[in-house]
Design a protein that fits this description.
The chain is mainly alpha-helical. It has 13 helices and four strands.
Length: about 280
């Protein structure tokens, strides 16, 4: 959702859940000079199968080869420019990507002029969403609690040591409840002027320029910035799920301004907690 807001700005080109370049290709960074064409071909196949999008492999390869030496940041940069920015070498690009906060310092090292936005959300809302959308075995959706624990503790302890000119935390709840103020602050961080059109959700487009559909398992979000998802967890989660999340995340939730529910667990709730944890080796 935040990536769609940013992509409405005329000076920004933000891809949505398409490239995931670090996720798929960072492991090959040490050998990129000898395998960049293989990486590009893999990306071409993935984009075609997954999104029905065409990657200009030859144009990317030509741009890389015209400016030796071949480095991972250079391959990443040209991939994004020629896939999402019409080849413009002065365009500002970015991508929304999952579970990559620990690589933010590496990204900033690779791109000295780069910036990172770390998106935070109420862990109880994350848990409610994960439970509805996951295809994993029963109880494994509870790993969302531990993902949030790591994301929030990393943002507080490691992210807090990064330059405020390079690293910025945004809470989802502020985006939807204090939209203009939050987006203005984000624009200031990025060094661009605020544009009112950024908050026109009816104009949002997906990464391939098709109509954007909200990435949510619930059906009560339309073409508007809605506050309904903020407290939906109160209606959808069981008391034991709320209590379990808060028991692990109380310090982090307080640090980021998320109020405790005040829920009191019964012996039955505690039994459900133990059954769910004990039947799931991952947990």
């Amino acid at each position: 959702f935040l990536s769609r807001i940013l992509s409405q700005h005329p000076d920004l080109n933000i891809s949505y859940d398409r490239a995931n370049f670090f996720r798929f290709y960072l492991a090959r960074a040490h050998e990129i000079e000898s395998c960049y064409r293989e990486v590009l071909e893999q990306a071409r196949e993935r984009f075609d199968v997954r999104w029905g999008m065409e990657i200009p492999v030859e144009r990317i390869a030509e741009a890389i080869e015209a400016d030796p030496p071949t480095t991972f940041p250079k391959v990443y940069d040209q991939f994004m420019r020629l896939t999402f920015c019409e080849g413009k070498q002065d365009a500002r690009w970015g991508e929304k990507t999952l579970l990559q906060w620990t690589n933010i310092p590496l990204f900033l090292h690779m791109f000295p002029h780069g910036q990172a936005v770390h998106i935070m959300r109420d862990p109880r809302a994350v848990l409610a969403s994960k439970r509805e959308v996951t295809w994993e075995k029963p109880s494994r959706y509870l790993d969302a609690i531990f993902v949030c624990l790591h994301s929030m503790s990393w943002a507080r302890d490691v992210g807090g040591s990064l330059s405020p000119e390079k690293y910025h935390v945004v809470r989802y709840e502020d985006v939807v409840c204090e939209s203009e103020e939050t987006v203005r602050e984000l624009c200031s961080f990025l060094g661009v002027d605020y544009e009112p059109a950024m908050l026109d959700a009816a104009r949002f487009k997906a990464g391939d320029k098709s109509e954007w559909k909200a990435n949510t398992p619930f059906d009560d979000v339309g073409e508007e910035i809605s506050q309904r998802p903020v407290n939906r967890w109160r209606e959808t989660l069981e008391p034991w799920e709320i209590g379990l999340a808060e028991s692990f995340l109380s310090d982090e939730m307080e640090a980021f301004g998320y109020e405790p529910s005040g829920i009191q667990l019964t012996s039955k709730d505690l039994r459900l907690v133990w059954e769910s944890l004990s039947e799931t080796p991952l947990l």
